[in-house]
Amino acid sequence: MDPAWERRREPTAAPVFLTARSAAARLGVDERTIRRAIARGDLRAVKRAGAFQISPTDLDRFRRGRSRSRGTAVADPGIGPGATAPGQGEPSLLDQFPGYPLAVRGSLPAPLTSLVGREREITALAAALRGRDRLLTLTGPGGVGKTRLAVAAASAVAGDLPGGVCYVALGAIGDPRLVAPTIAQVLGVREAGRESIEARLESAMGEQRLLLVLDNFEQVVEAAPLVAALLAACPHLTVLVTSRVRLRISGERERPVPPLALAAPDAQAATGGVAQSDAVRLFVERAHAVRQDLVFTAEQATAVEAICQRLDGLPLAIELAAARVNVLPPTDLLARLVRMLPLLTGGPRDAPARLRTMRGAIAWSYDLLTGDERAFFHRLAVFAGGFTLDAAEAVAGAGTPLRVQGVPGTPVSAAALDLVAALVDKSLLRAEVVAGGATRYGMLETIREFGLERLAASGEADAVHQHHADWYLAFAADAGPRAKQPGAAPWVERLRREHPNLRAALTWFLDRRDGLALVRMTGALWPFWHEHTYFGEGHRWLEVALDLGRAAPAADRLRALTGAGTLAWYQSRIEQALAWHEQALALAREVGDRAAEAFALINLSAPAMEFGDYDLAFARLEAGLAAARAVGATEAASLALHNLGCLAWLRGEFHTSRQRAAEALALAQAEGWDWLVPSILGNYGVTTADLGDFDQAAALLREGLELGHARGNLWDVGTALEGLARVRAGAGRAQQAVKLFGAAAALRDETGIPWSRTDRAYYEPFVAALQEELGADTFAAAWSDGRSLSWPAAVAEVLAPPADPDQS
């Protein structure tokens, strides 16, 4: 046993001890009777070198008291005949701390509300308790439901344990020295004489098959060696711990308790009180306990799902929110959850104080932190949507005064790693392995709000936000342009994960009217915004940046102008696209950037095509292609060839269009300009369909759809679906064509991407012809079927191998 727990005893004259076997012989009973009496606490004994030692005096006391109750320690929490009665002999350690309430005694608590969800977790935990693992620790933030899960699992296995279950509530115990006496109190074991309470516990539990549930261990975690000692001394003891921190002792098996399951982001919320997710089920049940007459309309049910998403599925937060429905309907409650902690109050009066408000639940964990951990924690709250280790150290420091400590990719110090690990261990941070095997960290939103409150109170808020914005500006400058370069996939994924932080940094620069930083950052990010179909959001940021950053360096401003024109064009804002690209052309010529000049000329061809000025479009494309080839800009050259193919298609020169598309595709694939390939395949496929080769057209468009889907580019997905609808219409599969047109229309509505004038002029005649062919009712049914498909479902349906090869 750890020295901190061993109570030293003064030496005495060597006593004469009896073994369990000799004691049994003296009483004329079986040895098992003696061992059971020791395990129950009816007979005092000390275990030395694996054998029990019993004094003749204690054995005589036991013989005189054999007629008394022989219940187990769990069933009878009273004092055994071998123990000193209260008020006699030496006082127990608990008696020295009268301010602490008595522990919950032996039997499991009976919750007054039902446990919603957790069926899978209960089954898995019960199986683990029946298995070989003897120390299981349920970890998680305050309010996640560790206690309820532990009680449910313990109840499930109680019948399998001859010794039963002993539940010990430690939430009110603040001194680690009180853990052993509290367990002893529940077991009905008292200190006696000079024998330590730890030794008495070991004797009492002995070889019983017993489950010991230790609830709320985090504030007495220094008592972990006691748990290790009990497990070592009692071979059939199993311990189930709930804690916000791991015990960090040998044999421990940690089981993090997750928040309740949430519905998929695109799922419809349940109506009529029938919920889809465990989180919503909990809200509905607790809300009905407050207002039995509450009826959930479709609008309110949608709000409930959004509330549960906002609260990260955290059970305590959901219960506190649901308690507000007596004064706020779900729609109003959702609107007020911009700040959550002021609303998440008013828990039951019979609950511990730390669980009556969400702020109290989090403060309980925060108070367990060291000074360095607290500073690190509230600085980390500045991150939106999670962070990496290098970002954490650069922005939040690592036990040092706040300063910028690196740029993306800087190696992480041991101090930063230790602080992050400590906050993960104490359930204030969550760790998640993401694509590529990297680890990412984040906070539940309620915890983050608490951290931001502490950050504001620290006086460091402005400095931390500035360092956060500076770090993400550097990250954007490095990662943003890579979204369209060869090998873009991992960079696009990193940018997607960091998008909430990038937005927060842009907002910080905007609030400070920092136009130079905005121009640099938006100019770097527009390729990502284009690739992930953030056309509207990206264009708004670029407009603001170009307005505030008129004095920005020419290279930064040129990139931002190119991005603004490109994103405006994809929104069919043709006049704005024309204006931005004209400014980009002028600036490129002013600074002598031939590659940028080539891009500007090629980009200016698109508005000319939309306005029907095909000669001007051709001249710009020829000039842009020549400039690109002159400086070896293969990306611009591929784009020029692609646009020349589109122009030939508009002129009805389908063979020329097909030839240009083939040239563009070969160059883009050879040079690794993967972002261009789906668009080229789309034009290639439509042109091929117009030439009557529907099989090859379908193959080209399916390839483009697959690549666009893999890259997450919804523009490419939508245009491929429309092209395939046109192919099916031409191939005589009218209902399938209408269904795909409906799915593409739903995707356009979802992304806010309108048809361009050119697309409308091309596709509307097909849609009108299909309606005439099928009739209004059949057409409407097929269109509705398509619109009801989510875009991933539509893609999956199109890419699935056809049952009939002729229907591909």
How are the SSEs ordered, and which strands pair?
Layout: H1 20-27, H2 31-40, E1 46-48, E2 51-53, H3 56-64, H4 119-130, E3 135-139, H5 146-157, E4 165-169, H6 179-187, H7 197-205, E5 210-215, H8 224-233, E6 237-243, E7 252-256, H9 278-290, H10 298-310, H11 315-322, H12 330-336, H13 358-366, H14 371-380, H15 389-396, H16 414-425, E8 430-433, E9 439-442, H17 445-458, H18 461-479, H19 489-511, H20 515-531, H21 535-548, H22 554-570, H23 574-591, H24 594-610, H25 614-630, H26 634-650, H27 654-671, H28 677-690, H29 694-711, H30 714-730, H31 734-751, H32 757-774, H33 776-787, H34 791-799
Parallel strand pairs: 3-6, 3-7, 4-5, 5-6
Antiparallel strand pairs: 1-2, 8-9
